[in-house]
Specification:
The structure is a homodimer. Chain A folds into two domains: 135 residues, Aspartate Aminotransferase, domain 1 (Alpha-Beta Complex), CATH 3.90.1150.10; 246 residues, Type I PLP-dependent aspartate aminotransferase-like (Major domain) (Aspartate Aminotransferase, domain 2), CATH 3.40.640.10. Chain A has ten helices and 16 strands. In chain A, the strands form six sheets. In chain A, strands 2-10-9-8-7 form a five-stranded mixed β-sheet. In chain A, strands 11-14-13 form a three-stranded antiparallel β-sheet, with helices on one face. A two-stranded parallel sheet of chain A has the order 1-12. In chain A, strand 7, helix 6 and strand 8 form a beta-alpha-beta unit. In chain A, 59% of the residues are buried.
Chain lengths: 406, 406
């Protein structure tokens, strides 16, 4: 007879997991990347070279670099951030993490207690919002418009909270290729955010995971690069620019913060092979790889926007992204995307319902997010067509698809 | 002026980290392994092969295997456990973790709330004890003798707790090459532990991290292999058998437990390159590699026991290990190894004071642990000599070293 573990589990656990059932046929969720774009050969060669030089260091925890991660990779990240995000960074202020997800957990672990308050964008990364809820934290949201988080709105929220005697633990922002809106915050807004953060004495938590994937032009200077007093905690990742399965992200913070986050990383470090491979690969290949990747993604994005226009017509409203791997779409008010996602899932189409990407779930109930990084052009076209059909079957819209009455 | 983060940190954070200062000259702490024993070339080749086949899967989270980790590696772990630990295992009941450390955190996260009680061995892994304290958990300890955890002692503790109406959340044991005592539990004791666990309805958490490193003979059957009702949660690792910097460990548990642990692994998975490299490397190389490694470690252990005998004589009591990477040493009662560790550290010799490896820190105050896996034979000899000198300088013992009066 099977032992009953039920009385042994904590009361506050998330629901039980289901066994893995494979990826859906039309997979438009998750930060997956273009499969052909993974630089398999160059990464393999880079690792072989690094192994020849440093392979014996695998025998030690931390590879002679301490708990913050392989020093050659931290040096390389510092160079990338300085060159691309205008952000002079000491490798001593970088912590290598298991993707940016662990970065979020570590920063939250250092700063947040149940009952605390943070400020978020009104549409934001679902994984960040769900983590805040799991921490028992209250969040106040600030409207995102075509230029990213609205600074007048931020000023109002900061003022209101101050009036209530509440000092928020941080302002969480994704300034470049905001998730899910795809917006990019101007330099002026970034400066204003910093000014407000200083005025109210509130830290900023800058999530810059998509910044390398702008179709055109240079990455904007990060907010942290404009900050001179260590008020901004920054996180980034190689998941979107190289490959998510590498699980290599990073947190950048001045030492007074880093020294408190570091003891919470209790897993003995991140994978050495990825750290070695990236440290060897990036100096020669990163910029060129990213240039190629963003063209690939731009092409997939165009296929998806064309498919949306063709299949959904005026029923689907969205701004064409200027970078990234996702599109944020608004449907008519009476379409419930929670239900749409559920029905679509049963038919092999995976989408992110807007409620999960919205600070106020109700306000996102007729919105959804589609990711286009991994799907092939054909999968994008077929999947959007199937989704339109499903949506029509459930909600009666869109009425026409591909110029044909449904 | 630097922003003051002090009021933003949680009250219950561990002390701030110090910047990394490099490894000490004589490093006898930590689970580091033999540097020349790392199969650098074979791992590199294995990864190249796996990359050629599966490299494009790096583009997806989970590499088409879901949150539990790369299926070929889970299959390979199942084969190793069946062949070596007598433990038939379904890959669906394996979760790949960032070393066994993350395994401890996940199991604790699923089961332990502040105020809970667990049962531990009276000397045990410092990282497990410190985690329990950090969880706010009370632990009761059971004496370890030359045959591992004493079952009469366990029966007494279980009975006492039952009398107090307390059902412990688990019994934590390291049955094979117990850390730090180096003892190996007999099959009879394993069976008795299972019987007691059943009788009292208490789960067992079996930590089998060192089991591949017995100098002679086969690994004993794991406790989990003898359990038929899913009462044992098991963890293992490649850190000791291959290399710690790979950060690949695993938890094995029946699905009712696995399904509750899995949602707590919120970091998007472990490093793909290590998982691919190990899955490719192990089927052909694991057994041969481990055979070679344990001979290497046995040789280093002999060097260390000889150095201890020469430098400490009768002052240092210990049982010669039958496997593993550490020796557990008892000094005269009036030697305070917390102080010894502190003074030695300043002189380049790192040791684990016994207080950190003891459920009751006071009872371990005259004991310490020395690791011999990473140090060269010369470093072992010189380091033990220096440690004896430091010990003599502080505590007046040992009186003689290398047949010379001090």
């Amino acid at each position: 007879m099977s032992f009953d573990f039920t009385p042994f589990f904590r009361d506050d656990l998330p629901p039980a997991a289901n066994p893995w059932g494979g990826f859906p046929e039309f997979n438009f969720v998750g930060g997956h990347n273009d499969a052909d774009g993974v630089p398999v050969e160059a990464l393999t060669e880079a690792l072989a070279k690094a192994m020849q030089r440093d392979g014996k260091q695998l025998a030690t925890y931390g590879m002679n670099s301490g708990a913050q991660g392989y020093l050659p990779l931290r040096t390389c990240i510092a160079q990338i951030l300085e060159a691309r995000a205008g952000m002079a960074t000491d490798p001593a202020n970088i912590l290598i993490t298991t993707g940016s997800l662990q970065g979020l957990d570590l920063v939250n672990g250092a700063l947040l207690s149940p009952g605390d308050t943070v400020i978020v964008e009104d549409v934001s990364y679902g994984g960040a919002l769900s983590r805040l809820r799991r921490c028992g934290v209250d969040y106040k949201s600030v409207k995102v418009d075509a230029g990213g988080m609205c600074m007048d709105g931020l000023a109002t929220v900061l003022g209101d909270l101050q009036g209530q005697g509440i000092r928020p633990k941080y302002i969480y922002t994704i300034p470049t290729v905001q998730n899910p809106s795809g917006t990019v915050m101007s330099r002026e807004r970034r400066q204003r955010m910093l000014d407000l953060a200083r005025q109210y004495g509130v830290p900023i938590f800058e999530d810059d995971c998509y910044a390398d994937l702008l179709w055109e032009g240079d990455r904007p200077a990060s907010i942290r690069s404009m900050d001179e007093n260590g008020q901004v905690i920054y996180c980034g990742t190689f998941s979107k620019s190289i490959a998510p399965a590498l699980r290599i992200g990073y947190v950048v913070a001045d030492w007074p913060v880093m020294s408190r986050i570091l003891p919470l990383k209790s897993d003995g470090g991140c994978g050495a092979l990825e750290q070695m491979a990236l440290a060897e690969y990036c100096p020669d290949h990163f910029a060129g790889h990213v240039d190629k990747l963003r063209q690939t993604l731009k092409g997939k994005c165009e296929t998806m926007t064309a498919a949306l226009a063709e299949q959904f017509g005026a029923t689907a409203e969205f701004s064409a992204p200027v970078g990234g791997i996702f599109i944020w779409i608004t449907l008519p008010d009476d379409v419930d995307t929670d239900r749409l996602a559920q029905v679509a899932s049963a038919q092999g189409v995976a989408i992110n319902p807007g409620s999960e990407w919205s600070a106020d779930p109700d306000s996102g109930r007729h919105r959804f997010r589609l990711c286009f990084g991994h799907a092939t052009h054909q999968v994008i076209r077929d999947g959007v067509a199937r989704l339109a059909e499903i949506c029509h079957g459930e909600f009666g819209v869109p009425l026409r698809g591909a110029n044909v009455e449904r």
